[in-house]
Amino acid sequence: MKKKSIFNSVILVVLAIFCFSIELPQANAAFTCGTTPRCAQTTLTYGGAQYASSGSIYLAAGESVYFDWENDSPGKMQVVFYVTKDGKQVGSAKFAAALGNDYDYFSVKESGNYYLTAACEGGNDNRCQGGGTIRKW
Question: Which tens digit of pLDDT belongs to each residue from 16-26?
Answer without folding.
Answer: 554 444 433 34
